[in-house]
C-alpha cells in the first residue's frame, strides 16, 4: 500500500491572511507543519500543494517538496485531488497546513484504519477529540461530529450535535479535527461531484462525502495541538513551542 501525505496551503485566509508564513519558533508555520509531517516517517512521500508562489518557494528553497495548483479551489480536498490525480498511490493523508503540532501517533491511527480495512468498507478516515467545555461545544468555529456504533460519521455540524433536549442523558461531544486519510478513488469522486445543500449551508466539505454515500471512519485521539486560525492562536503556539 503506497501512502503519501499532502498538505494543502493557501496564502490567503479570511480570519488570518498570510498565517502560514508567520513565524513559529524561528521558522514559518507551513515549514514547521511540513517538517513535522516528514519527521513521522509514516509516508512514502510528503508534498505541500499550494496556489501561492510565496509558499511554494518557502518549501522548495528549504529542501522540501511542493506542487503548484493549476486551478483555484474551494477547499483542500479539491486541491489535493488535482495534485494526486495522476500519481500511483493508494491512500493520501491530508495534513492541514495550519496545524504544526500534528503528531505521529494520530497519523498512525488513521493509516492503520486502511491497513485493517480488509473488506474495503472505509472511503476515508478522520480524527475527533472528546470535548466538554460548553463554550467550545456551542462555538460555530468548532465543528462537531456524531458517530454510529462502529465509529462511522453520521453528521458534522457547526451547531451542537446532538441537541441536549434531555439534560440528564450522558452525551459525549466530539470535535472534528480536519486531518483526513482518503482512498484515492474517494478523493477523485469528491473532486468530480457537485456541492450539495448540506455542504453549502454549513460550509463543511466533509458533508459532500456523506451526501454522496461515502463512509467516514472516525478515530478518537486525545492529542489536540493548536490549529492556527487567528493571531491569538499564533501567540499560544509560540508559547507552546518554547
Automatic annotation (TrEMBL):
EC supergroup of this enzyme: transferase
Keyword Cytoplasm: yes
Catalytic activity: 3-deoxy-alpha-D-manno-oct-2-ulosonate + CTP = CMP-3-deoxy-beta-D-manno-octulosonate + diphosphate
EC number: 2.7.7.38
Annotated signal sequence range: none
Locations listed in the record: Cytoplasm
GO cellular component: cytosol
Example GO BP: CMP-keto-3-deoxy-D-manno-octulosonic acid biosynthetic process
Metabolic or biological pathway: Nucleotide-sugar biosynthesis; CMP-3-deoxy-D-manno-octulosonate biosynthesis; CMP-3-deoxy-D-manno-octulosonate from 3-deoxy-D-manno-octulosonate and CTP: step 1/1
Any one GO MF annotation of this record: 3-deoxy-manno-octulosonate cytidylyltransferase activity
Keywords associated with the record: Cytoplasm, Lipopolysaccharide biosynthesis, Nucleotidyltransferase, Transferase
Main location: cytoplasm
Gene3D superfamilies: Spore Coat Polysaccharide Biosynthesis Protein SpsA, Chain A
InterPro entries: Cytidylyl_trans, KdsB, Nucleotide-diphossugar_trans
Keyword Transferase: yes
Function: Activates KDO (a required 8-carbon sugar) for incorporation into bacterial lipopolysaccharide in Gram-negative bacteria.
Record family assignment: Belongs to the KdsB family.
PANTHER family according to UniProt: 3-DEOXY-MANNO-OCTULOSONATE CYTIDYLYLTRANSFERASE, 3-DEOXY-MANNO-OCTULOSONATE CYTIDYLYLTRANSFERASE, MITOCHONDRIAL
Name of protein: 3-deoxy-manno-octulosonate cytidylyltransferase
Gene name as annotated: kdsB
Amino acid at each position: 500500500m503506497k501512502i503519501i501525505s499532502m498538505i494543502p496551503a493557501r496564502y490567503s485566509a479570511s480570519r488570518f491572511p498570510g498565517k502560514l508564513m508567520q513565524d513559529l519558533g524561528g521558522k514559518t508555520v507551513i515549514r514547521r507543519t511540513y517538517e513535522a509531517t516528514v519527521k513521522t516517517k509514516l509516508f512514502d512521500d510528503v508534498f505541500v500543494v499550494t496556489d501561492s508562489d510565496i509558499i511554494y518557494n518557502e518549501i522548495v528553497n528549504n529542501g522540501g517538496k511542493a506542487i503548484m495548483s493549476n486551478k483555484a479551489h474551494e477547499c483542500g480536498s479539491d486541491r489535493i485531488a488535482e495534485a494526486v490525480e495522476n500519481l500511483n498511490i493508494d491512500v493520501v493523508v491530508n495534513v492541514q497546513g495550519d496545524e504544526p503540532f500534528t503528531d505521529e501517533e494520530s497519523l498512525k491511527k488513521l493509516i492503520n484504519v486502511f491497513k485493517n480495512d480488509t473488506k474495503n468498507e472505509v472511503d476515508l478516515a478522520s480524527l475527533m477529540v472528546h470535548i466538554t467545555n460548553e463554550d467550545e461545544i456551542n462555538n460555530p468555529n468548532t465543528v462537531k461530529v456524531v458517530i454510529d456504533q462502529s465509529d462511522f460519521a453520521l453528521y458534522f455540524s457547526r451547531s451542537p450535535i446532538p441537541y441536549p433536549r434531555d439534560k440528564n442523558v450522558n452525551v459525549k461531544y466530539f470535535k472534528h479535527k480536519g486531518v483526513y486519510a482518503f482512498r484515492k478513488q474517494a478523493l477523485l469522486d469528491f473532486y468530480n461531484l457537485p456541492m450539495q445543500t448540506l455542504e453549502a449551508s454549513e460550509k463543511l466539505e466533509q458533508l459532500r462525502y456523506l451526501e454522496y454515500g461515502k463512509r467516514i471512519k472516525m478515530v478518537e485521539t486525545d492529542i489536540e495541538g493548536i490549529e492556527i486560525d487567528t493571531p491569538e492562536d499564533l501567540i499560544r503556539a509560540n508559547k507552546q513551542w518554547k
